[in-house]
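Hi R.,

Here's the chain you asked about this morning:
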Amino acid sequence: HQLTPSQHNTEIVAHTPMVSLSELSFLTEITPKVREKLLPYITVLPRNTPINLNTAPDEILMALLEGNKDTKSFEELLVLRADKRIESMEDVNVLLKNMSIDSSVVTLDSQYFLSIGHLKIEQQEITLYSLLKRVKNKENDKDIVYLIRETWNAN
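And the predicted structure, written out as tokens:
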């Protein structure tokens, strides 16, 4: 069965990672109302990235539960990270297991960061979004920061 050029392009796009949040509008399962609720909590990164248990909003962590009703373990996790920064995965392994969360989808460190800058010149306002990636240099244990992508909006 041969695909027409337009079908072929659609097929390629359908099975590739997103490069922009605007692509959510192509997902018919996500209504505009749901999309608006999601936008403050999500971003598009160049690769699959674990979720940081120390910094992710509660709503993102709750999404990891996928219907698991062990809210007691979830509440314990929230209290643990509110009291102090979680220093070791050993501190949360039992809680993750109770919630059926695979430890490979979470982390205690972040590699990607979004920097947002605002500039106002007279009546013109510009917002600059910079996606940064931090990598530990194995030779000297210092951080290397890469600029992955920059976008801006003028108001």
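The longest strand covers residues 124-136.

Let me know if you need anything else.
M.
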